[in-house]
Amino acid sequence: MRAPATSANLGSGFDVFGAALERPADIVRVERAEETTIEMSGAGSEFIPEDPAKNTAGAVAEALDAPARIKIDKGVRPASGLGSSAASAAGAALALNELYDRGLSRSELVPIAAEGEALVSGEAHQDNVAPALLGGFTIVAEDGVTQVDSSVPLVVCLPDIVVSTRDARRVVPESTSVENMVDTVGRAATLTVGMHREDPAMVGRGMEDNVVTPARAKLIDGYDAVREAALDAGATGVTVSGAGPGVIAACYESDRSEIAGAMLDAFDDVDVDSRAYQTRIGDGPTVYR
Ligand SMILES: Nc1ncnc2c1ncn2[C@@H]1O[C@H](COP(=O)(O)OP(=O)(O)OP(=O)(O)O)[C@@H](O)[C@H]1O
Ligand SMILES: N[C@@H](CCO)C(=O)O
Description:
Blueprint: E1 2-8, E2 17-32, E3 37-42, H1 56-63, E4 68-74, H2 84-99, H3 106-121, H4 129-134, E5 137-141, E6 144-148, E7 153-159, H5 165-170, H6 178-197, H7 200-206, H8 212-217, H9 223-232, E8 237-240, E9 247-250, H10 256-269, E10 274-280
Parallel strand pairs: 3-4
Antiparallel strand pairs: 1-2, 2-4, 2-5, 5-6, 7-9, 7-10, 8-9
Helix pairs in contact: 1-2, 1-3, 2-3, 6-7, 9-10
The chain binds adenosine-5'-triphosphate and L-homoserine.
Domain GHMP kinase C-terminal: 195-267
Enzyme class: transferase
Subcellular location: Cytoplasm
């Protein structure tokens, strides 16, 4: 099972919007077992507990009552803002659903995969697991999840800084002005139509946000300079990916490589190592048998 990285929020859609990324991804393998065991390898795996009670894939095995030997090769570093915890949870949910013939649809697996998010961040938010399972652009609302296929080009730059979702949720303001609310609704609507039309300019305009992103940007050394550099290189919009520290830019494909270079250089200027993924909005998990 290949389960994609995802980017939640996209600026104006805090806890609502999410997008599957074409790359990077986790590889999740499962075999039936008497009790669940987990083996981790790959990017940042040394920081991820193999105890099933502390691993998002273990929480999913428990929720599905599907004990298994689970092996996860991380393509998505933890505490990245790229839905690392969600990729393993979504991959495990789909793989275990097949292994045990549970017959649940990908949509029905979204709340089950969110049990893994509850384990690591304290809240079962679905804005990473929904796109990780369904692919494309997703809107998580009280009454369900809406999915739209899209393939807007993106650059995601991941600095060598750790920001945990739990910590980044603490800095979110508890209230805001009506002015900010009106601005956010306008941008969220623009972004949604932009995804449907696959219009990078509209998606970029909709990625701004005056409420959550400014508070979180302070946790990321060099954020303002990286954002400016990406915009100067042609990005149509830039924001914090998920809870950070990843920074995501929407763009036209022809500008992607220059934007990636500009973001890497800007982090380098403040002595922060980083890596850039030239990617796009992609599909959900791929199942290998
Ligand atoms: N299978 C797993 N994969 C990744 N992280 C895991 C896993 N199981 C438990 N964790 C823990 O979850 C935390 C990482 O999750 P967190 O939500 O902070 O980051 P993220 O998923 O990369 O970010 P975001 O949700 O903002 O996109 C780490 O503390 C890590 O040890
Ligand atoms: N919406 C969540 C996503 C992070 O997992 C947040 O920004 O806290």
